[in-house]
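Morning, I've got a small favour to ask if you have a moment. I owe you a coffee for this, so here goes:
>
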Amino acid sequence: MIMGPVSMLLDDHWSLPPLTRALLAAAVHLGYLCGCLLSGLIGDRLGRRPCVLMSYLLMGGFGFACSSASTEMLMLAYRFGTGIGCGLGIPAVFALLTEVSPSKHRAEGLIMMASSVVFGELYAAAGVLFVDPQLAKSGDHCDIHLLSVMQEAGHQICSWRTLLQIAAVPSLLMVMFALTMLWESPQFVTVRHRDYQEVNRILKAVRKSNGAYQVPIRFTPDSRVVREQPFTLRPTPAAREVCAFETMTGKHYSGTVWTLILVTACKDFSLYGLTYILPQYFRNIKTMSIGLQLVLSSALAVPDWMGTASAYTLKGLVLGYFSVVSTYTAEVFPTSCRMTVIGIISGIGRLGGVAAPLLLEASKQYYQQTFDLFITMVIILMVAATTASGINLIWIGMMSNLEPWKDKYTFH
């Protein structure tokens, strides 16, 4: 949310060309894609906790680095690194929460976690209101040199640098919290390493940190089922990756994987496209397509209170999407490749977020200042996602006689 105002300030400060402006918006999404793919490789081998810790460090470190960027190329590199950090953490958090939550409370936990995004947005909005509510406090003194330090000491604030520093603070604070309060997933340790002593140590530490000394620890692996599950037989790393790949591309899972990728791409393309388009182009468009004119004309007749209601309704739908998809992924895919699947779905789907600003700039340059190309792509993606979802539901219904995947361990 911070990057919306920052992008406008950077455009005024550096006089960015359209391609560079689009790349600044797309760089974090490209980094997110790479981070998600790395998260699956790291998380399904080393664990969920290392990915979360690395995510906090990268987001905080590159976030502060962004505030010191002196050129647009450095900003692109730092934004890419920030995206990698974010991509490392998202699949790990979803996998960790689903693996430590009881099935009957799993959706509640995921909804609470997704709802925390709202607190981050409120923090970002408060930072903008406190530092530069009019987005007018950036200028020549934002360049990195001695005069800049003297001017900032004279209360000439370079607001976009200050905003980026404010945005990076929570990540570094959360590192200290995670080092002391975040434990590895007992389910991952069991399925991946079969280290039962480590599992009991983690469970006892969690019990102690929660002050629940009266709760007994009884870990009971089902050895009969363990022998039936190929992922728990300590294969070599190469064999593990082959098993994960076969699971994702097999007839039982491939349709679900590609459907979720398409739905995620549609969501990211629409969401980040609108986020990029509204603050920069809405007031500068010379011509509009007929469809967009009708939408804007109808919006003029909507009462003011409908804007707030619509915003919260949209936020609720987004949170619902995160909770449903995360719960579904946790229930369908096995522990041994869960983070890899979440990373692939989130990462490849984020290509929609990468494409949105680039297509918007192309539409502005080659289609007489209209949004026709962007709107056409939104319609195509929505139709494709709806069709794929329907086909996948029919396929799941046909395969309903198959036993759903269940985790083979019980934690009390």
